[in-house]
Amino acid sequence: MAEVFLKLEGIKKSFGGVRALKGVDLEIRKGEVHCLAGENGCGKSTLIKVISGAHDPDEGNIFIEGKKVENLKPIDSIRMGIQVIYQDFAVFPNLTVAENIAMNRALMTGAKKMDWKEARKLAIEAMEMIGAKMDPDILVERLSVANKQMVAICRAIINDAKFLILDEPTTALTAKEVEKLFKIIRKLKEKGIAIMIVNHKLDEIYEICDKLTVLRNGEYVSNGDITEYDRARFIRDLTGRDIEEIKYSPEEDENEILRVEHLTRVGAFEDVSFTLKKGDVLGITGLLGSGRGELGDALFGLAPAQSGKIILNGKEIQIHSIQDAMNNKIAYVPEDRLTQGLFLERSILDNTMAASIKNYFKKGKLDYKAMEIATDDWIKTIGVATPSAKPAIRTLSGGNQQKVAIAKWLNTSPDLLVLNGPTVGVDIGSKSDIHAILHRLAKGGVGIIVISDDLSELVQNCNKMIVMRNGKVAEVIDNTVDETTLADMLSGKQGG
Amino acid sequence: MKNKSIKDVLTSTEMINVYIIVALSMVIGSINSNFLSVATVITLSRAIMVTMIFALGEMLVIVSGGIDVSFPAVACAALFVPIKLMVDNGINNVWFAFGLAIIIGLVFGALNATLTAVVKLPPLIATLGVSSLINGGMLAFFGSKEISNLPKAVDAISQKFLFTYTAPTGATYSLTVLFLIPVILCIGVALMLKYTMLGRGIYAIGGDQNAARIAGFNVVRIKYFVYMFAGAITGLGAMCYCILCRTANPKNLMGSEMMVIAAIVVGGTRISGGHGKVIGTVLGVVLVGLIQNNLIMAGVPAYWQKFVVGLVIVLGTSITSLKAKKIAQSAKV
Ligand SMILES: Nc1ncnc2c1ncn2[C@@H]1O[C@H](COP(=O)(O)OP(=O)(O)OP(=O)(O)O)[C@@H](O)[C@H]1O
Ligand SMILES: [Mg+2]
Question: A213, A214, B49, B64: which is deepest, by most CB within 10 A?
Fold first, then answer.
């Protein structure tokens, strides 16, 4: 068996009263791809930050290549060959792509001078490896989420790491880039590099991982070869319950909720028409740049359509701005929750109420009691792991932040709910809870549109799907399609 | 930057400053033909050189994500204490004057850094506290009486010039040798910011302090450097001011922080940190200096000058923050 690179013993870490890690053991060997799995808020990212020196553990021992290390600081961990792709990327918005990518190398070697030529070269090299196409001189604040994630990946893979940690590295990537990333990971593995991945997409875990460690609630649950885990056992270990994966098939209903006719925004999408009937959960999918995201932005007035008709519940409506959309009871969960969806420094309550606050004015005063009750209610139904509604969003785990972003819009009691990548980073247990909520709302007459490139989620969750290619509707299908066929449709290999 | 489009360059904050400076100069020049002359350049250079030194330190602090409102107080202490000591004890040495001024700046810079980086007070609160601490101390120990006979060696510097220009009218204009200090500092700081990892670290912690920490930057050390460097050059600038005025006044510089910060922000530095360039700050200082010192040549009454300064600051800072907002909301690539 290969040598052990990292060994953890009894790691404990608390934040105030929240016990994030309650004594975790872990062993990672060279040349293995190790999956760290567990529900949202179980402590995966916290454990990673302990390994990278970003958090000091309260108790426990860390051994790196057999040597016990104490008082680990980020720079020490980097010098020992550990590179991390953080869940929130931790890139510098005010610096260029090239500098962001080259920064880790410079810090690792302890360079005193900034070599701009070298930085550019390194960045271009890294981007070629993963197939990213970005201007190396552009500031990162101008990048999309997907490209920010690419930057984070590039800067970790370009350094000759001995141990690479990837905390949900594929949340914003499409299938093609995921394939490229996995190719790189396999190559690194052959070179004997130890790799640890956190990921909530089971298919990807089965594709790339050799070993698995499951955590629940800050505690170790089980560990072993991936081959020892079939889907059912995996899900049971993760969630402590069984989850049925059933497709959503509502009864036929002729009542029309939404009709879109010839919607066009030049350069984004063209002549898009579809209808959504009562009970429908409509999926919109397509590759990056197919216009799927832009269509969602248009329905919410972020970048409005220039021509075409939108008819909601029998009435034609005009959407030129976000205000128009909200007045017509349209809600939108955006793709980039960190910069568009949430106020990170504010509490869960403030965020949950952010889009519906006007419903809580009573005689010119805010009804705090009602707001607290509603927030607590959402925390329970949607399964946000938190002791109360008070903590700032920043202190929540990534998946739990996403849940609050959804709760914020559900609380507006919308007539039409558009979700762009609704369950990105959400664990499978909560995913199925969120799906159940969407299905219940759909049956109650709320129009639900799910924009996503997570094909298994679409097939399971939507009874009707639109595939977009080059800004146009390429296919309209129902959920009898399988994922492989759907994937081919996306790239235009199949269908007409 | 190789791929920057011409449009980006032409609409950069630096270029906007250049346009305003040129336009303003033409307006003043068309009203008063005496304006467009070597003499104006020399007097303006002299008038803005101390502000320029202060602005440079303040800019570093702002880029790193902080703010320092204590520099006027630090400057008062750094110019008055050495002169007082020298006069009382009969010391007559230029190096002593500058050396002690810099040391005083370093000490208060270290105090600012400790309060913000270690005690973790918000920078505004910390430096406000330090400011009033110094202010009170100065008043208690020295009162508000100025010293008008500087030690000879120190005073002599005020008569050393780089060159002297004789106008057609016969009047002479001389540029002080001290002008070399801001020039050298500007070049040095610009190079440091662009080509050293320390400089990049200042941008990094201003952009995202937590990301900088986990990337392996020593955030505390960088903050100590920034505040202490700013303190040191504040001391240097203060002694220059004292020499140019040929008196040591314990409170004259108080209240100059707003104008300096405004000039920096007009020059394109984002008050939220992470963005800012030396060239922008130079242009911002020149622009504000031009308005403050030369508008009178265009016949604008004194009370309107305040108004115009305010107007330029409001416009200039709005441009910077509107640009930031536009980037935040624009379509991502
Ligand atoms: N800085 C912090 N302050 C307070 N609480 C924190 C902080 N960071 C994490 N926590 C808490 O620690 C627990 C574990 O969070 P962590 O981010 O490690 O979860 P995770 O397993 O990565 O979840 P996810 O799958 O959603 O990313 C959560 O309850 C979270 O709220
Ligand atoms: Mg996490």
Answer: B64
Say yes or no: A58 and A120 in one domain. Answer: yes
Alpha carbons B177 and B74: distance in angstroms, whole number: 24
Task: Please tell me the distance between residue A44's alpha carbon and the centre of ligand 1 in angstroms.
Answer: 8
Q: Do A288 and A225 belong together in one domain? A: no
Shared-domain flag, residues A163 and A269: no
Those residues with Cβ within 8 angstroms of residue B129's Cβ, 6 or more apart along the chain or in another chain: B115, B121
Residue A251 in any domain: the answer is no
Whether residues B197 and A111 touch (CB distance < 8 A) is answered with yes
Within 6 A (CB) of ligand 1 lie A 15, 18, 20, 38, 40-46, 87, 385, 395-400
Run of H or E residues at A221:
strand A219-225
Q: How many CB pairs under 8 A join A and B?
A: 92
Q: What is the pLDDT of residue A67?
A: 95
* Whole-prediction pTM: 0.90
Task: Give residue B329's pLDDT.
Answer: 66
Atom of ligand 1 nearest to the CA of A396: 31
Question: Ligand 1 centre from A36 Cα, in Å?
Answer: 14
More confident residue, A337 or A285: A285
State the distance from the centre of ligand 2 to the C-alpha of B125, rounded, in angstroms.
34
Other CB atoms within 10 Å distance of the CB of residue A220: 19
Query: Which residue range forms the structural domain that includes residue A350?
Result: 256-491
Task: Tell me the per-residue pLDDT of A444-458, one tens digit each, with 9 for 90 and over.
Answer: 999 999 999 888 889
Burial string for A423-446 (b: 16+ CB within 10 Å, else e) reads: bbbbbbbbbbbbbebbbebbbeeb
What is the spatial distance between Cα B204 and Cα B220, in angstroms, rounded to a whole number?
Answer: 13
Contact list in B for residue A137 (CB cut-off 8 A) is: 1-4
CA distances from A150 to A85, A101, A287 (A): 10, 10, 16
| Predicted local distance difference test score (pLDDT) of residue A339 | 65
Report pLDDT for A126: 93
Fold of B2-332: ABC transporter involved in vitamin B12 uptake, BtuC (1.10.3470)
In a domain, residue A250? The reply is no
Contacts 24+ apart (CB under 8 A), A11-16: A11/A47, A11/A50, A11/A57, A11/A59, A11/A60, A11/A62, A12/A57, A12/A58, A12/A59, A12/A60, A13/A43, A13/A46, A13/A50, A13/A55, A13/A57, A13/A58, A14/A58, A15/A395
Residue pair B205/B75 in contact (Cβ under 8 Å)? The answer is no
Same domain? For A262 and A234 the reply is: no
Could you give the number of structural domains in chain A? 2
Is residue B2 pLDDT above 50, yes or no? no
Q: Which helix (H) or strand (E) holds A62?
A: strand A59-64
| Ranges A191-195, A268-272, B26-30: which has the least confidence | B26-30
Are the CB atoms for A277 and A293 separated by under 8 Å? no
Looking at this predicted complex, what is its ipTM? 0.90
Among A93-102, B12-21, B97-106, whose mean pLDDT is lowest? B12-21
Say yes or no to pLDDT of A212 above 90.
yes
Domains in chain B: boundaries: 2-332
Do the beta carbons of residue A50 and residue A57 sit within 8 Å? yes
pLDDT above 90 covers what percent of chain B?
66
